């Protein structure tokens, strides 16, 4: 089973690398959106500093969502999904493999870009480490929840719009605790509780989402 | 809306009731399938022993593909049951996946992966115990004279070559049951001959083949299913004539 997981991860990573533009686009979107904010709200460092955590998290959420449609859409269209469904490996394991690969190609680059952009937004240096930690816990949750949404909208017309309606409300808890962890760190409060809750959400999503997505995929194939 | 009469079934009609000496390895009882609001087929029975072949015949839209998808457990039957050694297939989907290979209309070939990568991924997934994946892939590709294309990305393949890669995938990780949906589409004569040879070898090993086709495929001693026999409206009536409740077939 572990080997099958690795097989799927490796294949999806290879696909993402060969079609490099996809994951590059996600990071570029993330960077560009964040850079827009100083133009929009003005260059006052006080204002930017105050809202920096919120900007980074909201933009990360949107960037992650933007990349979700390629998680299963291509597999669905070219018939690979039939064959994946009809394999000796439990479907939730395959879903997990695809989600891991998705996170490595979208969540991880966002995570790496976030501290650099935080400098741009004048974020207090105390927040950097917590920002990275919170994103390390939060972005995999985004990928997992997103996988359920992406599986549910397969075959639907205008799936992309539907996907955002489905998934964005579910992202709110991650957003709330992600932002409040960074804010707490910047203001010298305890941030351990927020990180623990983010970790708990990740574990919960890890336990539930692959199964939910697998059930939705079977529905899409049917 | 065709006025052309459908060929009356000859030997196929007697098929479902034909008793088999032992309990069948792979069987379906009273299978029914609904796509959208339309009943595609109903009351379909089949039973396969090792080495058997089913030939699915019928016009476009007569339910050949749906039947194969039901056999693959990709689509849950609206009525009836699919059994493997007397056990419902739904109880253990992974075991069904291990023994079943399905070849559909879509080619499932990634344009950016090479031919060898396209095949080896599925071999690793379908037959995890394969000791030398590369060798198995190479051997299967050579069957179709595709060895020299092993490093070519999928996007450069022609329709026939894609189909051959799909079949190579099947031969590199052979399961016991092959479900082939019009496998001869876009294939040249030489490749069809290779396919026939492989099917014969597969049956000799005790494998089961179900195959839908419009062209002539040599399948010795295959049992023919005329899908129109199981259609709720035999003359190809219009959608308005659908009335599922009138058929009264039982669920489960």
TrEMBL record, chain A:
Lipid bilayer topology: Multi-pass membrane protein
Transmembrane segments annotated in the record for this chain: 21-39, 93-121, 127-154, 161-182, 194-217
Keywords for this protein: Cell inner membrane, Cell membrane, Cytochrome c-type biogenesis, Membrane, Transmembrane, Transmembrane helix, Transport
GO MF terms held by the record: heme transmembrane transporter activity
GO process terms (BP): cytochrome c biosynthetic process; cytochrome complex assembly
The UniProt record lists the keyword tRNA-binding: no
Gene Ontology terms: cellular component: plasma membrane
Statement: the UniProt record of this protein carries the keyword Cell inner membrane: yes
Classification via PANTHER family: CYTOCHROME C BIOGENESIS B-RELATED, HEME EXPORTER PROTEIN B
Similarity annotation: Belongs to the CcmB/CycW/HelB family.
Protein function: Required for the export of heme to the periplasm for the biogenesis of c-type cytochromes.
Protein name: Heme exporter protein B
Organism: Insolitispirillum peregrinum
């Amino acid at each position: 089973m572990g080997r099958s997981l690795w097989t799927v991860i490796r294949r999806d990573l290879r696909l993402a690398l060969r079609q490099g533009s996809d994951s590059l686009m996600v990071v570029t979107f993330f960077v560009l959106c964040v850079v827009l904010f100083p133009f929009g709200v003005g260059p006052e460092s006080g204002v930017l500093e105050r809202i920096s955590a919120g900007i980074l998290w909201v933009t990360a959420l949107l960037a992650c969502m933007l990349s979700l449609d390629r998680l299963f859409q291509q597999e669905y269209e070219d018939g690979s999904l039939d064959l994946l469904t009809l394999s000796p490996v439990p479907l939730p394991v395959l879903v997990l493999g695809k989600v891991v690969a998705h996170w490595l190609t979208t969540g991880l680059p966002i995570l790496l870009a976030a501290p650099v952009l935080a400098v741009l937004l004048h974020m207090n240096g105390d927040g950097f480490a917590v920002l990275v930690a919170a994103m390390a816990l939060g972005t995999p949750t985004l990928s997992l929840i997103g996988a359920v949404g992406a599986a549910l909208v397969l075959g639907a017309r205008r799936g992309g719009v539907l996907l955002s309606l489905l998934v964005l409300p579910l992202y709110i808890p991650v957003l709330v605790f992600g932002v409040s962890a960074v804010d707490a760190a910047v203001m010298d409060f305890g941030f351990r509780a927020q990180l623990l809750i983010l970790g708990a959400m990740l574990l919960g999503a890890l336990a539930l989402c692959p199964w939910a997505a697998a059930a939705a995929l079977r529905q899409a194939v049917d | 809306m065709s006025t052309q009469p459908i060929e009356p079934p000859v030997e196929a009609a007697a098929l479902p009731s034909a008793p088999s000496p032992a309990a069948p390895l792979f069987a379906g009882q009273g299978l029914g399938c609904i796509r959208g609001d339309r009943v595609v087929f109903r009351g379909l029975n089949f039973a396969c022993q090792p080495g058997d072949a089913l030939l699915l015949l019928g016009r476009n839209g007569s339910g050949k593909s749906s039947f194969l998808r039901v056999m693959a457990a990709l689509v849950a039957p609206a009525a009836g049951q699919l059994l493997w050694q007397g056990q419902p297939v739904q109880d253990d989907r992974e075991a069904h996946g291990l023994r079943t290979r399905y070849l559909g209309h879509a080619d499932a070939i990634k344009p950016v992966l090479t031919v060898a990568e396209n095949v080896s991924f599925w071999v690793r997934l379908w037959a995890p115990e394969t000791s030398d994946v590369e060798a198995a892939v190479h051997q299967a590709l050579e069957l179709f004279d595709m060895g020299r294309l092993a490093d070519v990305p999928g996007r450069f393949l022609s329709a026939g070559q894609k189909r051959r890669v799909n079949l190579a995938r099947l031969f590199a990780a052979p399961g016991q049951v092959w479900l082939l949906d019009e496998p001869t589409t876009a294939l040249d004569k030489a490749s069809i001959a290779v396919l026939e040879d492989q099917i014969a070898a597969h049956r000799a090993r005790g494998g089961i083949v179900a195959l839908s086709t419009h062209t002539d495929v040599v399948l010795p001693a295959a049992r023919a299913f005329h899908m129109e026999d199981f259609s709720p409206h035999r003359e190809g009536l219009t959608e308005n004539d659908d009335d599922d409740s009138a058929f009264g077939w039982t669920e489960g």
